[in-house]
Protein 1
Amino acid sequence: MSGTTRSDRTSVDANAHHADDETIRVLRPRRAAPADAVRPTRAEINLGAVRHNLHVLRRALQTQGVTASAPSIWGVLKADAYGHGAPAVARTLERAKIDGLCVALLEEAIELRSAGITIPILVMGGYFGPAHRGLEEVLEHDLTPVLYHPDQIERLATLTRDRNLETRPAFHVKVDTGMARLGAAPTNVDALFDVIADHRELEFRGLMSHLACADDPEPGPTNLQLRAFADVRERARRHRLVPQVCHIANSAAALAYPSTRFDAVRPGIALYGVSPFFGRSSVADAALSASGELRPVMRVRTEIVALRDLAAGDAVGYCHTWRASSPRRIATVPMGYADGLTRSLSNKGAMLVRGRRAPIVGVVSMDLTTIDVTDIPGAALGDEVVVLGSQEPPRAPLIADNADRTAAAITAEEIAQHTGTIPWEVVTNISRRVPRFYREP
Ligand SMILES: *Cc1c(COP(=O)(O)O)cnc(C)c1O
């Protein structure tokens, strides 16, 4: 097989697959499409806001970091672009000339290639199956794998030889500088670099690590990781290995720690318009002002589908966890925990109706949630209900007091606070049952 030429490539691929008889079946994520939407519950994705957030990041990164020029930006689109729909977000970022994309899974990368995305895609998860079989798909789809074990390097080298490729396949190496999760331990990198140095048919293009505490005001752990990273780079140099791109920064680090801006940065959450400084009080002014300019990309809305008047003493929902202390008007909305509205919002938090907050009452059930609209004059069947994002109040004379006319908003941060989680989980939780509608203003 090693004697075949480039023109034989298709048959080589087919032979390789038959010989191994076990090609990977990649499962495409399925999600509800707008055309399937009978229910008024939907997530509106504002692609203009994605572009805006990329510009905000670009501007923020122009100030001095580690390298002479501003770092390139590799947008993180794992988990279906944090629930926003990866193909649409990728197309938007590609048109806005982002440098590259990162995903966690091979499946996620293949989905983007199938959607016609041609810019570099880094597959960060590092899992390519017990026999590293996924590396064949990596080559086939022109993806860049993140590797951290000598066996993975050997396997990629074998595949490369078998295929007689014209260009050297590139890979990035991940080192564990203090997260203790994934990547080569600093004690093993010399052995890894020995193997890499033996395989010049591959291109060691990038060196990366991931920060554990970049969203923490205490810089100690981040500085320790930076020192470990510098040490690993030095050891690579001693093996005469100089990767083109070093990168370590997520959104929080890219904005708050200029010392983490190497050749590239890997923002995720900031691209979706959510501040990475959740629950953090002390943040550098520049970072805070940049994160303040971010615009939320996702808005989740539904409508009131039922209304009922309860007498004092009447109870609502499973296990009667909420009881009316006075006559109350209760609205039902068709969204529940199966849609990603976590059940821990039961009797907590609120939704927006006519620009005002209606508290969630009773437990969130699988498909339905109940809210108290007693204090919202005129609340009616078919009214829009905003679960996440902002809502313009109706124009006078629909509202009685003209005082309360500013647009209200429910943020991912607010939901995270109520439910003891982080905004990342709030947006990625919105399930595939909720169709995504794209707006491109
Ligand atoms: C998710 C992820 C990021 C992006 O993190 P944000 O906090 O969303 O910016 C960057 N790097 C790696 C390795 C990740 O897994």
Note: DSSP finds 13 helices and 20 strands in the chain.
Protein 2
Amino acid sequence: MQFRDLGAQYLHLKHEIDQGIAQAIAGSSFIFGPQVGQLEQALASYVGTKHCISCANGTDALQLVLMAWGIGPGDAVFTSDFTFFASAGTASIVGASPVLVDIEEDTFNLCPMDLERRIQQVLAEGKLQPKVIVPVDLFGQPADYPRIEAIAKKYGLLVLEDGAQGFGGAIGSRRVCSFGDAATTSFFPAKPLGCYGDGGAIFTNDDDLDSLLRSLRAQGRSPEDKYDNRLIGMNSRLDTLQAAILLPKLRAFEAFELEKVNQVASWYDELLTGHVRTPIVREGYYSSWAQYTIQLADRARRDGLQQHLKQHGIPSMVYYPRGLHQQTAYQWMGLKDADYPATSAASKRVLSLPIHPYLQQEEVCAIAHQVAAFIKGT
Ligand SMILES: *Cc1c(COP(=O)(O)O)cnc(C)c1O
């Protein structure tokens, strides 16, 4: 059994994917070929934003937006403490100061109350200028944008949605990557919509930001004259080949994969409720299930269950074994576990189980059976 079976997906979509790759090679337009523009249009229309700007990966996507907004030294960028490193690391790359915010213990997403408390703290200290909030749609569920956007408005901050794990999720009819002033996603192979290498994209309704980002991803070149560089930019492009792979994958994602992965999650919910703490999805929210993450009573039981599953050939992952405040690179901040009670607790209790659209009901039953057997035995 695989944690995320990309082979099963390829077998299912082989014909369209192979055709797309062959066409891209035959066209020989390997950089910014027509498939890149087609994909950007398809993504923007799926998400519901005016613009989509593809780039090399989800990390660059975040960095490019921060660069476009001129975020740098002296600026505070608020993000979740419980996420992949890039959500905060990109703020550090541009010279700004990440301010880590604790999470809600039930959704694992940025806690709006703690966010406001930390904004006020930064204002009171007077050393940094609050500028941007980077909420993360962890494990596929959108963050609490209604409350976060209200806080952003109150304090005059920009919102950059990190939708790397949330692509396909929604709040009501608003899809992930349409929140905030700009949003980013990643096409890393294991994300909800993955390619066959690295890839990423940025979404916005802002025309000026769109043209600035198109320049910044291509060495800061001017739109009129590509050998006149008006800005200092990056080299961050999505390959034509990856776009060709993503086009049929996006169609399958929309047509049935998202629905199927939600079906898998509901099988888990049914079979695991009463044995372990199952993930919750807020009323009116829709998850794309980048991860299905259960919680155990403590670290010993979490590690014990992971070992037990491994012995039965079932892979599982700990996302994440530590909060960002515990990362070696951020030790200089001197942050304390006690100031991050929800992430500190989650990092000891969480275990993510295999989930993907091609997981069979029998496999879910077998996994749930082993989880229940372990819980009964301890
Ligand atoms: C994966 C991920 C990223 C970075 O994406 P890459 O394409 O790997 O650079 C950023 N933020 C979050 C929350 C992620 O999960």
Note: The mean pLDDT is 97.
